[in-house]
Amino acid sequence: MKIFLTLKHWQLFLLFAVFPVIFLLAISNPIFMVNVFPIIAILFMGLCFAWIYSTGANLHKKLSAITPMNITWFKIAFFIPIVHMLFVSVFMYRMFPYIYSGVKPDAPFITTLIFALDLLSVFCIFYCLYFNAKVLKAVEWQRPVGFKDFVGEFFLLCFFSIGVWIVQPRINKLFVDNPEHTR
What we know:
This protein is mostly helical and 183 residues long. Helices cover 81% and strands 0% of the residues. The protein is built from seven helices and no strands. It has helices spanning 3-6, 9-26, 30-61, 72-101, 108-141, 147-158, 160-177. Helix 2 packs antiparallel against helix 7 (160-177), helix 3 runs antiparallel to helix 4 and helix 5 packs across helix 6 (147-158). The radius of gyration is 19 Å and the shape is globular. 19% of the residues are buried.
């Protein structure tokens, strides 16, 4: 998955922002939208998650011995939204016939579980972005960093459509210009 580390910022922007919007604008049939949208959403979210994991895991490998960071919580936080996304996708696919027929399914436990997983997933995604921002700055500076040192990178990753133009060239510099710089 190192391909994400060598893509240029404009290529990532096209992949994650422009192509999904063009695809959604091209779909005007509601039946097609109901049947194909979940697959396309999973595909694009999968690509986003692949970029997040590839960036975090490979930047972690470039940390020096003086800047240790635990990657275990990153990996756990990474997989929780994926499980959530798959669970919700299957649940919503099973609920579409009820929604279109006007029958309201009585599933308070499932609804509460989905809401709790939503909150947990959002927290985990923010943690993954936090980890990526921290490890990027720690690799660049080759020393331990505090939140005030990488808060800018964190918000750039949160607002990916803007941040990709600034963060990805720095990642490219670490992996394309200096690929042998690993432990």
